[in-house]
Design a protein that fits this description.
Number of domains: 2
CATH class of the largest domain: Mainly Beta
Order of helices and strands: HEEEEEEEEEEEEEEEEHEHEEEEEEEEE
Helix content: under 10%
Strand content: 35-45%
Bound molecules: calcium ion
Length: about 400
């Protein structure tokens, strides 16, 4: 692992610049009326007023790139809608704020002890080749005046083919990256210097980090968010085997303490199925085992006899589950009354839905948790009644992840 602790302070120039578009200073944009309370800013690039690149950063952000290609709006790769931002950094680019970077930055105006939500999606371009030299693709920079210097307290980076988080100098490996694929990220941070601090991170709905305790080193303001490409080795002369980096970024939502996961998640609807790694049931007919409910085949099923027969789906990790997709055997001929319970540990379950299937289709039907989304791993489907007999028979079932 290469080290990158010797970084220059980066925010000072940007923090004092004025955002100008076409020579006019822009007032801070107000959140769209449809955004929930607590969402301070949406930057999904769909609003024409936000498409100021490459001349200037969008309203409420500052510019840290020096070329015409450093940050541009693209329609070629988007996570949502028609537009995203494309960052490109070349080894030959001029130095910006002390290093090689193409970044868009929040202003340094976050209050002390702030609780913040950050939702966004990143796509490393398909040309993103393995390099022994790391780069930061999102960072939370300490405040510019009166805060401890050095490395930022929190950063998301790619290194040696893997996603990693640098949290106050401690590295958290989040697994290999896949070039060309969008990854949804949600960060929830309570910026504190005492034990009341909190860092939570979700990657494609899976909760991959949960830490309590101090989250930054202090100062009069909480850290501010930056995103793009920051590759310090290209400035220091450390070995690097690539000369160009391109990534796309979209669906940024910044929330305050009033926000919740679903307010900032790039996944805007509860429609994405979660993979199931294991199944079990309270009872089953030998020819219709629980695994038949997740084999992708609507002609095979789990069947268990008795009111209260239950099928449990294990997603293999704690995820932000929001609903379920359930297809019933003979679902077009009979309704089924059932309940959903969810659990993080497989021991303690919470009821998240109960009701009746339509009785009009054998296709999967979607239900949404009446509790809202939850960080859980196990989903239990408990059968109560149908008008024909006392058999629970499910052909396919999946949890849905936000
Ligand atoms: Ca977009
Ligand atoms: Ca099946």
């Amino acid at each position: 692992m290469k080290r990158w602790f010797r970084r220059t302070r980066t925010g000072l120039m940007a923090a004092t610049s004025t955002v100008l578009v076409g020579g006019l200073a822009l007032a801070p944009a107000q959140p769209a009326a449809a955004d929930p309370a607590g969402v301070q800013r949406v930057l999904d690039w769909e609003q024409p007023a936000d498409r100021t690149l490459p001349t200037a950063a969008p309203p409420q952000f500052t510019k840290q790139w020096a070329t015409a290609y450093g940050a541009t709006n693209t329609t070629g790769a988007t996570r949502d809608g028609s537009y995203a931002v494309r960052f490109e950094l070349r080894k030959s680019d001029p130095v910006v704020s002390g290093s090689k970077r193409a970044e868009i930055s929040q202003r340094d105006e976050q209050p002390a002890n702030a609780e913040r939500w950050y939702g966004f999606s990143t796509q490393l371009a398909s040309t993103w080749a393995h390099d022994t030299s790391a780069e930061i693709v999102s960072q939370w920079h300490q405040c510019d005046v009166g805060c401890p210097g050095g490395s930022p307290p929190l950063a998301l980076l790619t290194d040696e083919g893997r996603w990693k988080i640098d949290f106050r100098g401690q590295f958290i490996d989040l697994g290999p990256y896949t070039a060309g694929a969008w990854v949804d990220w949600v960060f929830h941070v309570t910026w504190r210097t005492d034990s009341a601090g909190l860092l939570q991170v979700w990657k494609d709905g899976e909760r991959v980090v949960h830490r309590t305790g101090a989250t930054h080193g202090g100062g009069p303001r909480s850290p501010y968010f930056k995103f793009g490409i920051y590759k310090w080795d290209w400035n220091t002369g450390a070995p690097s085997s690539v000369t160009q980096r391109v990534l796309h970024h979209d669906a940024l939502r910044l929330g305050d303490e009033r926000a919740a996961y679903g307010d900032v998640s790039p996944q805007r609807g509860c429609t994405r199925t979660a993979a199931v790694t294991a199944t079990s049931a309270t009872t089953h007919e030998p020819v219709n085992p629980p695994a038949h409910a997740v084999d992708g085949d609507l002609t095979t099923r789990w069947s268990g006899q008795g009111f209260g027969a239950a099928l449990t789906l294990d997603t293999g990790a704690v995820r932000r589950l929001c609903g379920a997709s359930v297809a019933w055997h003979r679902g077009d001929l009979r309704w089924n009354d059932y309940a959903l319970h969810a659990s993080a540990d497989g021991v303690s379950y919470t009821k998240v839905w109960e009701g009746r299937s339509s009785g009009t289709t054998t296709a999967p039907e979607t239900v949404l948790f009446t509790t809202g989304s939850l960080d859980v791993r196990h989903l239990r489907i408990s059968f109560w009644a149908n008008p024909e007999n006392d058999w629970a028979s499910i052909t396919e079932a999946r949890p849905l992840v936000l």
